[in-house]
Design goal:
With 248 residues, the protein is α/β, with parallel strands linked by helices. The chain is 47% helix and 16% strand. The structure holds nicotinamide-adenine-dinucleotide (NAD). Nicotinamide-adenine-dinucleotide is lined by residues 11-12, 14-18, 36-38, 61-64, 89-92, 112, 116, 139, 141, 184, 186-191.
């Protein structure tokens, strides 16, 4: 087991990629706190893991709210002790072409992806520094690397997440803390429109060399790699699990 007795915090872990990651971590021996804005769904996801013999707790928390994040981290600390692994996965989209992108849609997306990732990073860093151990995983996207149409807010946020991951890697390396980013391919309901709408489907699929959509469960092992000691000498990197879409 690659994550035996490690304590992980997975934001946005109530569904989608985050839930797959939480389950994969538990299979590798970790105890996982599922932190999600939808507290009921977080508790349900945790209960499913516990019912199958794993260790998990679900916590309702909006990552964009600094106090809620600090309270969640304190609760995990009281429950299990310090956090070894942070996965900054919570995310939203508010899609619109530039001329119709409202300031509110811009702010909401930046608040969750950028401010939310920063809030969680800062909340766990102190404990990781004190214990001289940490694995931080950010979630970016092809949109943050290549740009995309109709998601200028999301692309800007995901590009910002990359900068945050690289700076965190440089700043925290001296404390034996790694920080890396994963760019998942289109997998879950967040990308349902491009995967199912006849107007986009084939055009998008043509850009994926492996020629198929991702399954969240085949992206989760990449998170296990960055969360484990297999990646002890890897930091500040971006790994795209996207079927080759961002080969460049
Ligand atoms: N699905 C894809 O194809 C894809 C592709 C590239 C990147 N991503 C990224 O992967 C991550 C997970 O995406 P997904 O497809 O699993 O999304 P999803 O919509 O299925 O799940 C996102 C989860 O985040 C939670 N969440 C949203 N806002 C939150 C907040 N403020 N605080 C706490 N929790 C919050 C939601 O409640 C939900 O449980 C996101 O960062 C997304 O941008 C997804």
């Amino acid at each position: 087991m690659q994550l035996k007795d490690r304590i992980a915090l997975v934001t946005g872990g109530a569904q989608g990629i985050g839930e797959s990651v939480a389950r994969a971590f538990v299979r590798e021996g970790a105890q996982v706190a599922i932190v999600d804005r939808d507290g009921d769904a977080a508790e349900r996801a945790a209960a499913t893991i516990v019912a199958s013999g794993g260790a998990a707790i679900g916590i309702g928390c909006d990552v964009a709210d600094r106090e809620q994040v600090q309270a969640a981290v304190a609760r995990i600390g009281a429950h299990w002790g310090g956090i070894d692994i942070l996965v900054n996965n919570a995310g939203i989209t508010r899609t619109a072409m530039l001329d119709r992108m409202t300031p509110d849609a811009w702010q909401q997306v930046l608040a969750v992806h950028l401010t939310g990732s920063f809030n969680c990073l800062q909340a766990v860093a102190e404990g990781m520094i004190a214990r001289r151990y940490g694995r931080i995983i950010f979630v970016t996207s092809a949109a943050g690397v290549l740009g995309t149409i109709g998601q200028i807010n999301y692309s800007a946020a995901k590009a910002g997440v990359l900068g945050m991951a690289k700076s965190a890697a440089r700043e925290l390396a001296r404390h034996n803390i790694t920080a890396n980013a994963i760019a998942p391919g289109a997998a879950t309901q967040m990308t349902e429109t491009i995967r199912t709408d006849e107007r986009f489907k084939d055009k998008y699929l043509d850009r994926i060399p492996l020629g198929r959509w991702a399954d969240a469960d085949e992206i989760a092992p990449v998170f296990v790699f960055f969360a484990s000691d297999a990646s002890a000498y890897v930091t500040g990197q971006v790994l795209a699990a996207d079927g080759g879409m961002t080969i460049y």
